[in-house]
Automatic annotation (TrEMBL):
<feature type="domain" description="Cadherin">
    <location>
        <begin position="2"/>
        <end position="89"/>
    </location>
</feature>
<dbReference type="InterPro" id="IPR020894">
    <property type="entry name" value="Cadherin_CS"/>
</dbReference>
<feature type="transmembrane region" description="Helical">
    <location>
        <begin position="559"/>
        <end position="583"/>
    </location>
</feature>
<feature type="domain" description="Cadherin">
    <location>
        <begin position="91"/>
        <end position="193"/>
    </location>
</feature>
<dbReference type="InterPro" id="IPR002126">
    <property type="entry name" value="Cadherin-like_dom"/>
</dbReference>
<keyword id="KW-0130">Cell adhesion</keyword>
<dbReference type="Pfam" id="PF00028">
    <property type="entry name" value="Cadherin"/>
</dbReference>
<keyword id="KW-0812">Transmembrane</keyword>
<feature type="domain" description="Cadherin">
    <location>
        <begin position="306"/>
        <end position="418"/>
    </location>
</feature>
<keyword id="KW-0106">Calcium</keyword>
<keyword id="KW-0677">Repeat</keyword>
<dbReference type="InterPro" id="IPR015919">
    <property type="entry name" value="Cadherin-like_sf"/>
</dbReference>
<dbReference type="GO" id="GO:0005509">
    <property type="term" value="F:calcium ion binding"/>
</dbReference>
<dbReference type="InterPro" id="IPR050971">
    <property type="entry name" value="Cadherin-domain_protein"/>
</dbReference>
<feature type="domain" description="Cadherin">
    <location>
        <begin position="194"/>
        <end position="305"/>
    </location>
</feature>
<feature type="region of interest" description="Disordered">
    <location>
        <begin position="604"/>
        <end position="638"/>
    </location>
</feature>
<keyword id="KW-1133">Transmembrane helix</keyword>
Length: 638
C-alpha cells in the first residue's frame, strides 16, 4: 500500500502507475483509490522462474485536478523465495539395470540426480521400503551393492523394483521415482555329480546293450545355458566302441567285451573310462567322472584241434621215450592254449605201451613194441583247458576229446624160424626128386620173401632145393648115388646139410636176417639086379621106402646161461658167508684137527705152573736165560 495525502482539506487523491519494469503490471495491480498494490490472479509468481524484483513508477494526484498537481514516486517490490517447490529427479534410469551375481560389495550400480528449484535448497535420497541388497547415499544419490548377490540363493530375488524418494532440505516436499534392477546369472558353478567314481564288475559274456550306470549330475547355476549339462565319454583306443554313452546312460557296445587279449591282460582286466560333464556357460565349466569296469573272465570256448582224429605211425623197434606224435589243440580263452592232455581210454596194451606229456600233448613210447603181437593201438585223449575262468578249476572247465590211432610199422627184427630146426631122415639111394619139405616161416616177412640156399654138407651136389610157388622148398635128389664097390666109387651114406633161410622184408636187403636149418640124410644103398636068362621084358614096380627120423633137442634162450651162472655165483657166496659165521670163533687148526685145541690148552697150563718146570743146577746162582727159539706153530718150520 502506498500512503499519500493532499494538504488541501477534503481533497481526495488517486494513484496511478506511470511506468514499470519486467512486465510488473502483469503480476501486480495498483488500486487507484487507496494505493494498494496487489497480486493479480494470473500469472503466479515463481521465484525460480520470474524476476526477483519489480519496479513501479507511481504518481499520486488530487482527484479532479490536472496532472500538474501530482507527486511521483518509485516503488520497488522484491520477491522473496518461499519453499514451495518439490524436488525434481533429473536422472532416473528408464531401462532396467542388469547386474551380475557375485559382484563385490560396494559396487556402484547407478547415481541418481535430483534438484530443488527453491533457492539454496538441497535434496536428500532414500529408498521407499527395505532393500537389504542395495544402499543409497542420501547426499549423492549413488546406489551401491550392499549384500552378496547369488543367483542360486533362493532367498535372493532375481529382480528388484526400487522406489526412491527425494526430499528437500526441510523435508517438506518430496518426489518419488522407480527403477528396475535385474540380477543376471554367472556361470560360477561347475556341474556336480552324485558320485565322482564308479566301480563296476561285469562278466566277460555280458551282452551288448547292457545298461551299466545312469550318471546323476546337476548344475547349480540357475539359468540357461549355464545350467545345461552335456556328457562326453573319453576312452583309450583299446576301449573304443566297447562302450557307448547316450545322454547320461552308459551301456556295453557296440562291440562285445573281450578279456582274451594280451593288451587287456596288461591292463589287469580293467577298463578305465572318463566322462567329462560340462555346462554350456561362458566360460565352460566341467567335472570329470571316473568309471572303472572290471571284467570277470568267463571260460567261453572249448579247445579246438586241427582234427578230432589223429593217426601216427611208429617203428616197432623204436626205443622207449620215442615221440609217437603230437596233438595240436588251441584255446582262444586267456591264457591262450593253456591245455592239459590226458589219456582217458582206448587200447594201449598191457602193460600200457604209451604215455602222454600233459603239458605238450606229445605221445611217447612207454614200453617196447612188437608188431607181430599188436599192430595197432587206439587211444582216447581228453584235452582240458586250465585257469581260463575267474572261478577256480574245475568249476567251469571245458574240454574236448580226440581219437588217436597208432600204427606199428613192421621192422625186420625177427629171423626166420624152422620147425624143427634139425631134421634127420633116411632114404634109399635109388630115390630121385623131393623127399622132405622144410617148414620155415618168418613173423616179419611173408613166405614169398624168404630165400633158401644149401650152404654146407652137399657133397658132390647130390641134393637140391625144389620149390613150387611161395611154399617152403623141399629137399630133393637129382643124381644116382654111387655105391658100386667094384668100380671103386663110394658116396657117403650120411649127409649133414646146412640150409640157410634168409628174409628180406619189403625187398630191403640192407637189414636181412637169416637162420640155418640142419638136415641129416642117411642114404641106404640099394641095388636093383636084372635076370640074365630072361628074354622077355618084364615091368617092374619099384617102391621107395623113406625112413624119417626127427631129433628133438632143447635150445635155451640166450639169457638162460647168464641167469644160471649168476644164480650159481650167488649160491656159492651164500655158502661162504654161512661157513664164516659158523667158524669165525674157532682156531684155524681146530677146524681141520679137532684135538689140536686140546693139546695147546694142556701145554699152556704146564707153562703156567712153576713147580712143574725143569730145574737147572744154576737156577739159584744165575738167572735162567730166556729161550730165543720161537714155539713152532702148525705150519711153521725150524
Amino acid at each position: 500500500m502506498i500512503l499519500s495525502r493532499d494538504p488541501d482539506p477534503g481533497q481526495e487523491v488517486e494513484f496511478l502507475i506511470l511506468n514499470s519494469s519486467s512486465n510488473a503490471t502483469t503480476y501486480f495491480a495498483l488500486d487507484s483509490l487507496n494505493g494498494v498494490i496487489s497480486k493479480t490472479a494470473e500469472p503466479p509468481l515463481d521465484y525460480e522462474t520470474n524476476p526477483k524484483h519489480f519496479q513501479f513508477v507511481v504518481a499520486v494526484r488530487a482527484r479532479g485536478r490536472g496532472p500538474t498537481e501530482s507527486c511521483v514516486g518509485t516503488v520497488t517490490l522484491h520477491i522473496q523465495d518461499v519453499n514451495d517447490e518439490s524436488p525434481v529427479l533429473t536422472y532416473m534410469p528408464d531401462a532396467p539395470l542388469h547386474i551380475h551375481e557375485n559382484v563385490p560389495l560396494g559396487t556402484k550400480l547407478v547415481t541418481l540426480t535430483a534438484t530443488d528449484r527453491d533457492a539454496e535448497d538441497s535434496v536428500r535420497y532414500e529408498f521407499v521400503g527395505t532393500h537389504k541388497e542395495f544402499f543409497i547415499n542420501e547426499d549423492s544419490g549413488e546406489v551401491t551393492v550392499a549384500y552378496p548377490l547369488d543367483y542360486e540363493d533362493v532367498g535372493i530375488p532375481k529382480s528388484w523394483v526400487l522406489r526412491v524418494r527425494v526430499y528437500d532440505s526441510q523435508w517438506a516436499h518430496s518426489t518419488t521415482g522407480t527403477f528396475t534392477v535385474i540380477l543376471q546369472d554367472v556361470n560360477d558353478n561347475p556341474p556336480r555329480c552324485s558320485q565322482d567314481i564308479y566301480v563296476i564288475e561285469l562278466a566277460e559274456n555280458t551282452p551288448v546293450g547292457t545298461h551299466l550306470v545312469s550318471l546323476a549330475c546337476i548344475d547349480m547355476d540357475g539359468a540357461f545355458p549355464n545350467s545345461n549339462i552335456t556328457y562326453h565319454l573319453i576312452m583309450d583306443p583299446f576301449s573304443n566302441e566297447t562302450f557307448s554313452l547316450t545322454n547320461n546312460e552308459l551301456k556295453v557296445g557296440p562291440k562285445h567285451l573281450n578279456s582274451d587279449n594280451a593288451i587287456f591282460v596288461g591292463m589287469h582286466f580293467k577298463y578305465t573310462l572318463f566322462v567329462k560333464v560340462s555346462d554350456e556357460g561362458s566360460p565352460v565349466l566341467s567335472t570329470m567322472i571316473t568309471v572303472i569296469i572290471r571284467v570277470i573272465r568267463i571260460n567261453e570256448l572249448e579247445p579246438v584241434g586241427t582234427t578230432s582224429a589223429f593217426t601216427f605211425s611208429i617203428l616197432e623197434n623204436s626205443p622207449v621215450d620215442t615221440l609217437v606224435g603230437k596233438l595240436t589243440f588251441t584255446d582262444a580263452d586267456w591264457p591262450f592254449n593253456n591245455l592239459k592232455y590226458t589219456i582217458i581210454g582206448g587200447h594201449l596194451g598191457m602193460p600200457p605201451r604209451f604215455y602222454m606229456e600233459p603239458d605238450t600233448g606229445m605221445i611217447k613210447l612207454l614200453e617196447s613194441l612188437d608188431r607181430e603181437t599188436e599192430s595197432q593201438y587206439k587211444i582216447v585223449v581228453r584235452i582240458t583247458d586250465m585257469d581260463n575262468d575267474a572261478a577256480p578249476d574245475p568249476l567251469r572247465q571245458r574240454s574236448a576229446t580226440a581219437q588217436v590211432m597208432v600204427n606199428v610199422l613192421n621192422v625186420n627184427d625177427e629171423p626166420p624160424m624152422c620147425h624143427p630146426p634139425h631134421l634127420e631122415t633116411r632114404i634109399y639111394s635109388t630115390v630121385k626128386g623131393p623127399f622132405i619139405q622144410l617148414n620155415c616161416s618168418d613173423t616179419d616177412s611173408p613166405q614169398g620173401q624168404l630165400s633158401y640156399l644149401i650152404v654146407g654138407g652137399n657133397t658132390n651136389n647130390q641134393f637140391t632145393l625144389w620149390r613150387l610157388g611161395v611154399d617152403p622148398p623141399s629137399l630133393a635128389t637129382g643124381q644116382h648115388f654111387q655105391y658100386d664097390g667094384f668100380q671103386g666109387i663110394q658116396d657117403p651114406v650120411t649127409f649133414q646139410l646146412l640150409v640157410q633161410v634168409t628174409d628180406e622184408l619189403g625187398g630191403n636187403t640192407a637189414r636181412q636176417l637169416s637162420a640155418t636149418s640142419t638136415i641129416i640124410v642117411h642114404v641106404v644103398p640099394w641095388i636093383t639086379s636084372r635076370p640074365a636068362s630072361s628074354t622077355k621084358a618084364a615091368s617092374t614096380t619099384m617102391t621107395t621106402s623113406v625112413e624119417r627120423k626127427i631129433l628133438y633137442y632143447w635150445s635155451p634162450d640166450s639169457w638162460f646161461p647168464a641167469v644160471l651162472t649168476l644164480t650159481g655165483a650167488l649160491l656159492l657166496m651164500c655158502l661162504y658167508a654161512l661157513s664164516w659165521c659158523l667158524f669165525k670163533d674157532v682156531p684155524a687148526c681146530s677146524r681141520l684137527f679137532p684135538h689140536c685145541d686140546q693139546q695147546r690148552s694142556h701145554s699152556n697150563l704146564a707153562a703156567k705152573e712153576p713147580g712143574l718146570g725143569p730145574r737147572h743146577g744154576n737156577s739159584l746162582g744165575k738167572d735162567p736165560k730166556p729161550s730165543t727159539k720161537l714155539s713152532l706153530l702148525p705150519g711153521n718150520h725150524q
